[in-house]
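ARCHIVE CARD
SHELF: 3
SLOT: left
DATA:
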Amino acid sequence: MRIWREGVRAALGAALVLAVVVGTASAHSILQRSIPSANASLSTPPRQVVLVFSEPVVAGLSTATVVDRQSAVVSQAVAVAGDGRALAISVGPLATGVYTVRWRVLSATDGHTTSGFLLFGVGERLPAGGAAGTGLIGPPVSQVLVRWVNFAAAMLLAGTVFFEFLILRPLRPRPDTSGVLRAATVTSAAVLLVGLTGEFVLEAAILLDTPVTGVWRSGTLWTLLGGTKTGWSTLARAAGAIILLIPPSSSGRILRAAMLIWCVIVGVTAGLLGGPVALVGSVHLAALVLVASVYGLVSVMAAVIVPKIPDAAVPEFPIVAPIAAAAMLAGITVSSHAVGSGPAAAVLDWLHLLGTSLWVGGLAPLWLVLRHVPAADRASVARILVPRFSRLAAMAVGILLVTGVYSALVHVGSLPAVTVTPYGRTLLVKLLFVILAVALGAYHRFVMRPRLEGPQPADHAPRAFLRSLAAEAVLGAVILLAVALLTITPPAAVTMPVAARAPLVLAGLASAFRVDLTISPAEPGWNRFEAMVRTGEEPVPPEGTRILLRLTKLDEDLDPVTVTLQPDGGRFTAEGGELGVPGWWEVQVIVRQRGTRDATTLFSLKLGSVSGRPDAQARRILMQARETASRVRTWREREQITDGSAGVTVTDLEMMKPDRVHYRTAGGAEAVIIGVTRLYRQGGGPWERDMLPSAIVLLGPYVSYLNNATAISLGRMGRCDEERCRIVTWTLSSGNASFAAWIGLDTFRIYRLYMAAPFHYMTTQAFDLNAPLRINPP
């Protein structure tokens, strides 16, 4: 029991260290969208191609190019956005034709490389048989095989260590199996070190798009090794393998313990600082090198001198090897999908690897020990070892079940993703072999074990058990092959096809013009603007017409930006990063024609998350505005509401407290409401009467929108008529709608109100406050 308690303490300590070092983000850099979109057909060439990924990418090691039909590169510089998730590719003048965008990026979160391509056309549609959407390029077979070998070697190495620590060490007397298990440890550690070198070089070649021989000349090996999660994983696994390669002699035990302590301290320090590259660049590097040098010298001297001192007993340090094996498994987690899902997911992924090493990794040492002992003693040794391993394997299967279900929920996300994504299908194959392995393990537990534990087991029972144990080990190797493929396959949760998001189409009236403004993708960053301007059903002629967009950030004092849209086949278009900052925006569309006054229409737009914080001054201004509005007896409003899908309603209202409303819509509807009575007509037709469920109650201009306001914050300053005014933003406590308003700082009058809600974008203005107004039944 003492050994089990030591193992549990070590596991909890390792889990705590892993949770501290691991951060939170998404998993795998997958292309989420692009501008222009995949398979788009553009009438005018773009100035930039923007690729937006699911998580940040490493700037210096992520590339993208645009090539024409002849594979000639037409792109120029590639820049990574501030949040690291977007690549902006500058392109020169593009002729008519089809272009291919190729990208290869390195995730800053889990260190995985992903690559793919997409097509778009300029002046023509894509040819038949072209790629449908974006193509994600899968990993080469060589990478899968190398990773499989490394997984198998790591599981065998860790499994042998845990088998010796948990199964053999407590036995008294202990079977003489040190030679065969030491051979398994040395072989698996050596294979792992060679395999790690091959895996790292191969992944570097894939990332740099160069032959393996060109990796050494690239000059980026240290950057890859010390500055990426893949490199950190390689270093951690190699350190664990080297520690376990040290022989368990008296000198070796001292070196093992000293090296483990040094690796843990340096590894945790590097992880907290951001990696080995950050550690090397630290101002404390000189002190760290000095301390490490002295520590290493003292450790070597102790390993040489202490064993030679008469009667000096060197402790066995039995816990060192299991901790080194657990740290080596943590090195695998460092570059896993789970590392992007937070500390809890990372710790559970490490526990999943621990359970795999206890069960699958322990099969080979159990087989080797039983195969190594003399045939005459095999049955008696099996009666001792098999029950102990059976209990350990049952515990490991329980760990795998819990952690596996959690991993599936995180990385698969939905049931359809199991069958329509490569990750989901590979996971199904893995589960099939896991079920077979569990069934074979149950056969060992409930059939073979009673035969071995019998008072006089049959002579063939140990031999039969060895054969079936070998079959279970083969199944374990197949499972590890599926695991190797899963680790370099993007999770289903981020590759699951999603319904295409419809572009935002804001519709409004500008004097005699109908304006439909399409903003795509209507997210902070690079956007494309398309305006359709019509008089009646006819589009305005491009000759003599200019369409301008004036973009004003409402919740920040940023300079307004004017964008000139260019004629484009009946529409007016432009694209750019003017809406690069999330928050509230006012979008003013200006229709300018020779010899006439400008016609304008306003839209409100809320992009991304608003960064404003609750502000006491903003609350005071809003409450004073509410009080001022509640004193207004009569007023008029002009309200424009668009649903984001080209639908629009423009209404002129007259309002008189406490319960009288007269309104007309641009579509010809008219109504008079007095209390619960409504009289209405359409297009000047006869009046009709109906009764409302309850009487309307007018509180004042916009008072109902000011009740239950939360998250009230201040925005930009400006002028409204003759007074200074300021933007105040807020949301309703229900969370269904957000508002922004220009409020005078002298009169506390609300000059203009904006609302953003699902399928609801409103701009409204109140005027003629307390003017003489009469509303009577027609």
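SLOT: right
DATA:
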Amino acid sequence: MAVRGFDEGEEKKSYGSVFLLGSALLVVLTLWSFWDDNITRRPWKKYQAGFYRLDYRKAIAAYEEEDKKLQADPAYQELDKKLAVEKARLTRGDLAQRLGELRREESRAEVRFGELDQEVKFVKSELEEAWYEHDHAVQTGANAKPHLERIQELEKEKTGIEPDLEAARKKREGMREEIRKLSSGVKELQSQLSKLAAERDKWLRVTENAATQWGPLPFYKIPKIRQVVLEEFDRNNFDEPVARVDRCQTCHVVANRPGFENEPQPFRTHPRREVLLADSAHPPGKFGCTPCHEGQGPAVNSVQQAHGEVAYWEAPLLRGPRVQASCASCHLDVQRLEDAPLLAQGQRTFEQIGCTGCHLVQRYEDIPKIGPSLRRISAKADPSWMVRWIESPHKFRPRTRMPNFDFKEDEATAITAFLWSASKDEGEKWLREHPLPAGYRGDRELVARGKNLVESIGCKGCHGFAEGEFSTVVGSQKDLVPNLGNIAAKVGPRWIYHWLKDPRSFSPATRMPSLRLTDQEALAITAYLTTLGRRGEEVSGLKNSLSDPKYIQRGEALARKYGCSGCHDIPGMERESRIGVELTTFGSKTLEELFFGNRTDIRRSWDDWTFNKLKSPRIYATERVEQVMPQFSLAEDDIKALRILLAGFRDRKVPQRYRADQGARVVQVVEGRRLMHQYNCIGCHEIENRGGFIRKYYEVSSLAPPPLNGEGEKVQSHWLFGFLKEPTPIRPWLKLRMPTFDFSDQEANLLISYFNGLSKVEIPYAYFDDRKVPKEHPEAARVLFSKDYFNCLSCHQQGDRKPEGPPEGWAPDLALARGRLNPHWIIKWLRDPQKLQSGTKMPSFFPGGPDNILGGKDERQIEALRDYIMSLGKRGSGAEGRKVAVR
């Protein structure tokens, strides 16, 4: 049999030190792993703990501050003294003895009531059991009589106890009521003190929320992950909806709490919290933070990771104004967002300087060309002027929207030759059909009359007439409409005259309206405009170049290469495509997709690439890579605004549940606003609290075009449609004229939908039933209209009869109200004119109507005035056949 070996040397060896070292190492590694997992890799815990300490300290400080105020408040101190006196009174003398006796009696009565109440409950329990046995006997056919007798005995026993129970209850309540009466003074004083100390005591509750007090030290809450899950917000590589996890509020705990506006991040209240984080806007519990601010929502291991400021993360945190770019993902109507002014400015600039002429962008496909038609340019412009203009448009008009392509003179000459050749036939035909009236001479008297007309009928709502004079601005320093300060260098009197008389006879798609000028008025303005500037020297050899086939062919190639047809209607180029890249997802481009050329002085970032591209469009060109984007000479503010807009062009499909309203009404508002800007309505009228630029030329605002804020609510849609199609004077004493724009039915309806959408008009038509006007209203309203009361006709025109006083104090003919104004709006206007139109000269008569009319009730008087106003135009206005009001 084998015998196990035995090593005497092994017996003498000791491994205690090894085990000790191993145990120590295990303890150290355990502590390190705990520290690394819970502290080093969990910075959010530090932030939450820091916030709880901050919250606790602020609450304590606020409590102490409020307590100091209370201690200095005589009313509080007086009540506190009264309370101390009242409490002392209850603890001394006969009153204290009486209270003690009452409380002992109340205690004994409570015990007796409890005993009797328990007895009744026991009896009721036995009754339930007896009734069960009785019902069971009935159901099984057994004898139920014994059980019924038992029930009767128990009912008798309960009936015998109940009077004693009621007596005990009354005795107890009597004791309590007497105690309340004796101590009512203390409770009343305590209630008054609590009201005065409510603000102070509120901070005690805040400290309790932040920490639990344990002895002299606060014991803070345990930090925890706070996350919001946005279901189906994102899409994976297979275009399938997936959830987004947002843990930003783990560190930014206080984003939706007031009182931390001046604290450092992440302990700062969100700016305009009450607006942006409201339940009707972006409640953090539904939206989280990343839909607006981007960043890496699930990351909590480090600030850099959470903010997405790590390599290859495609959506780093948006800081400052860059956050506005996110609004475009969910909001279709960005122009009405008060907190996205740069985005709104960028969108207006993008649409109005012609970006869509070269670049396709989703939702911007149908913006019309911004430049004038060149189909008959040979009948309009001086060819030498054309060469100089094409060569350097900013030299002739520094504020023009036309960009500078940096053409050399021979290139400009070639393009001029092509345009002249392409438009020659139509131009010559137009010239033959539109001669200048015989005997035209631009004498001083005619020039003076023309200048007076220009300054009075509304031309300055769109045009400037001298260097530095401008009306409607694109961005911060571009004119929406050409400045005519040097127009005589470009065009002659024949074209000016016929253009003024009928702009669409020359260019059917022009946005220039007709001011319905008489022949003499058009001649006078023509005479004035021909004094603004003078023809320049003729370009050497231009006459030969205009007919040279080589020049014409070269000019056509240049026009195609540089995309001239993107902004202008050019014969033969109707089917040209856009020459620029599509920008629909430009904001999602990565650095690898951006070409920096050979530039080493520009920081490698999307923001820097875009800014420099807009500032100097050909900055990234190299010897091998040509770039054709022209120089717009934009102001730095406009470049930054455009960059915000471009950053919002992202490849993102936000689910409908997270988007703002994008229904038909919003679409109509967006498209209607775009049309309004194209026709420059804000040049004369203030709309959406913006515009009315012509008003600066009028010392008296009542002589300027009226503001159109709330126009959809104010006027009837059918009247506005007719007015847009064929304007008729509302204030005939004004020299200013509402132009005729020759709107199509579609355009007029779109503008009406725009105004109705701004005013949130759900039902665009109103009905006024004269049969439902109370009998007493007409006579009461006549009295209110009279000189003895409101004297309405002292300001309002009545037919051909003008009011007294200067025209700046006159108001529209009320006979037009029936067919023009919405009856609901008249009620609101009479209640408070200043609320609807700040600065109006219409006085406010209510509240404070006469006591002796319609019982002195303001609302009845207002309704009577409305009913009377709606009756003024009943006859002779054409309104009989289309009743207009509301009941």
